[in-house]
Amino acid sequence: MIDSYKTVGENTYEMIKKDIIFGNLKPLKKLKLNELKNNYKTSISTLREILSRLSGDGFVVYEEQKGFYVSPVSESDLKEIANLRILIESHALKYSLENSNPDWEGSLLAAHHKLNLYENKLLKNKTEERSNWKRYDSEFHQTLVRNCNSNNLIELHKLIFDKYLRYQLLVLTFRGSGSIEEHKKLLDYCLERNFKKAQMVLEEHIQNGIIHANKSF
Amino acid sequence: MIDSYKTVGENTYEMIKKDIIFGNLKPLKKLKLNELKNNYKTSISTLREILSRLSGDGFVVYEEQKGFYVSPVSESDLKEIANLRILIESHALKYSLENSNPDWEGSLLAAHHKLNLYENKLLKNKTEERSNWKRYDSEFHQTLVRNCNSNNLIELHKLIFDKYLRYQLLVLTFRGSGSIEEHKKLLDYCLERNFKKAQMVLEEHIQNGIIHANKSF
DNA sequence: TTATTAAAAATATCATATATTTTGGAAATT
DNA sequence: AATTTCCAAAATATATGATATTTTTAATAA
Questions:
Q1: Is the pTM of this model over 0.90?
Q2: What nucleotide is nearest A46 when CA is compared to C1'?
């Protein structure tokens, strides 16, 4: 995937965010301007802009006169994020289902198909596909909420989802067939427009997800 | 209230945010760096940091190569924000009540007392107290959620609440005794730890709030 | 009116300079 | 040995000026 942004700032923003989510920049790591300047080859002013944005997103913490560092992780934070994700994603899903239409159903089906492809690869222990799997997992869940007809809700979900994603990449592992079945059920209940059941599966899905957290905080 | 921040950036951030929320910087207004530089007496680099942060918060929109402008307002956005506020604030309130304790009950009582003072002033048409009233209204609602034991939830609520506040100051007016009664009921049900009823009042309170939006979008 | 285009304005980025604050460790004190 | 004091080095905060690009404006041509 080639850079789709023009500006240095936008590209570097994506790079740093990715490095935080993927754990290349470890939690609590001090983000020294001069160091980043060398590593990302951008000016300090541009970097400060980027870190300011990231602190708004919650991936970076800023302290006056002390500077920036990567947001910490903790088990309690993970639980908070998971609960928030259940709240937001369920809520959005409800509206997506109310607004359900053939277009959306089609895109959901498509998203699930692609996700399932990578799930099967991972079942066969092709762990090098992990990053692709996460990508399609994200896309599937984004699609779930996309039809809710509230941009604020979609934006919010993306934010929370990214935070959850960070934990997944840091401390969670592929759960195997359990997760696969949940995705399938989720799809089916959505196509049936059965919110109650879909919601239950979704909640279970997210809750099951964090049980697999290894205790390496 | 004297500036409690040291840095120019922090102070100017608060100023610009306030100017957006209070409508001194109108929706869709282009935020030209040079103009801001003159008005707020800060350098362009500092301003870009600030605007980057505000775009993360959703008060400013950023477009590559085009720069920054004040986020637009619309009736549909207001409705989205209100719904989101109901969702988040109710959810947080539920946990606040579950964790209820004398300390929190005391602070809630105190917050309501102060709010009520200003509500009564406004009833007597002392409209110059409007900004104080909003301040104590904010504090009361912040107190409602403060006991939920989830920092993520508290942060999120603050963000949404500020967006709602902006609409209140731009297009909404004081509803009078209806709002006052709702606050009182809310307090009472909270002290009784009756989530169901408290939640109903809260939802009603927020819904009633946006009915008063005049159509000047 | 619409399209074209050149000039002006504004953004994006970087480098550099200065003042201030924080940090890390040496030296002094308890 | 532990704590405090104090200074130099590192890092942050802010401002300014320079340059390349991009967008906007407005004048001109079709």
A1: yes
A2: C13
The architecture of the domain spanning A75-211 is Up-down Bundle (1.20)
> How many residues does this entry show for chain B?
217
Query: Contacts from A202-206 at CB under 8 Å and sequence distance 24+?
Result: A202/A86, A202/A89, A202/A90, A202/A93, A202/A144, A203/A86, A203/A90, A205/A179, A206/A82, A206/A85, A206/A86, A206/A89, A206/A164
- Closest B-chain CA to A44: B45
| B64: chain A residues, CB-CB within 8 Å | 5-7, 10
User: Among chain B residues 143 through 162, which have CB within 7 angstroms of nucleic chain D?
Assistant: none
Looking at residue B2, its amino acid is I
Confidence of residue A2 (pLDDT cuts 50, 70, 90): very low
Pick from A37, A144, A167: which is nearest to A92 by CA?
A: A144
Record: contact B55-A53, CB cut-off 8 A: yes
Tell me what the mean pLDDT of segment A81-93 comes to. 98
> At the topology level of CATH, where does A8-70 sit?
Arc Repressor Mutant, subunit A (1.10.10)
Which ranges in chain A are annotated with CATH 1.20.120.530?
75-211
Which of B45, B55, B87 is the closest to A45 by Cβ? Answer: B45
Model confidence over A155-166: pLDDT tens digits?
Answer: 999 999 999 999
Q: Straight-line distance from CA A32 to C1' C24, in Å?
A: 16
